[in-house]
Amino acid sequence: MPHPDQAVVTGAFGYTGRYVARRLLDEGVSVRTLTRKSGRADPFGGLVLAAPLNFSDPDGLRRSMEGAGVLYNTYWIRFGRGWNTFDQAVKNTKVLFDAAADAGVRRVVHFSVANASVESRLPYFRSKGQVEEILKASGMSCAIIRPTLVFGEGDLLLNNMAWALRRFPVFPVFENGDYRVQPIYAGDLAAQAVAAGLGSDSFVADAAGPDTFTFEELLRLLTQAVNARVRLVHTPPSLEFTLTRLAGLMLRDVVLTRDEVDGLMAGLPTSDRPPAGTTRLAGWLVENADLLGRRYVSEFRRNYQR
């Protein structure tokens, strides 16, 4: 089944959405984006038309999606700030889905997270699960993609860990560091999502890479790639979380959230399904080591600062 001629990608000028938009353009699909930040650099040279992702204007959202066959939704928040809470993000996403239905969009490909659940004790994973249920109940044809830990150009997490490994003599590791992660390359994730846009059946699928590491193994792989001279020190979670909060104050950013720490230690960035990705992290690190971690990338500046 061919892909519809037109698609909408939320956040095509950002991280994951950029990979999805590039994949669609390469396949000859006309792409529009809904963006929360005006004036963000356009990596596509005007090929992607932009409209505001304004949840207080559902009619505007509907008009921006009219004529599109598929909506690829990457919108979410990493942490709450002020009125911009997880509960508000759930409500915002429902507004988006309702507008897509009113615009005649035939299918939604929604990016969730591995091990999302309405029963999770972690607000990030619980609210992601709530959005999944809203989409399933909407009656729209949908594919829900659940990525693990996404790496690629433009990534924040691995880049900022590499930045710290390059600059400090010690790097704290929560407890024994034996909890698992299963990274997936953003390009493989985009390929899986675009393939999901071709179908009509509704489903939920994990998106994980071919390799599983303990967190300490991941750190040692990063350390080797960037040729860092650093000592990994095992610390209680409470101490490391305090250290990351202090680092966040100095950097004027949120380095790690409590949900990220607890989810990591619970092994949530993994899947028990066959891997969808084929790109190996070790090879990607070798190819990108020279640039990785050269500068700190602020989540607050990228996605929260007006």
The CATH level-2 architecture of the largest domain is identified as 3-Layer(aba) Sandwich
Number of helices, counting only DSSP H or I runs of 4 residues or more: 11
Mean pLDDT: 93
State the helical fraction. Answer: 25-40%
Count of spatially separate domains: 2
What quaternary form is this? Answer: single chain
Regions with little confidence, pLDDT below 50 for 5+ residues: none
Order of helices and strands: EHEEHEHEHEEHEEEHEEHEHHHH
The dominant shape is: globular
Structural class: alpha/beta
- Rg over C-alpha atoms, rounded to the nearest angstrom: 19 Å
How do the strands line up in the largest sheet? Answer: 3-2-1-4-5-6-11
CATH topology call of the largest domain = Rossmann fold
CATH superfamily of the largest domain: NAD(P)-binding Rossmann-like Domain
Largest sheet: 7 strands, parallel
N→C terminal distance: 41 Å
Strand content range = 15-25%
The top-level CATH class of the largest domain is Alpha Beta
Topology, number of strands: 13
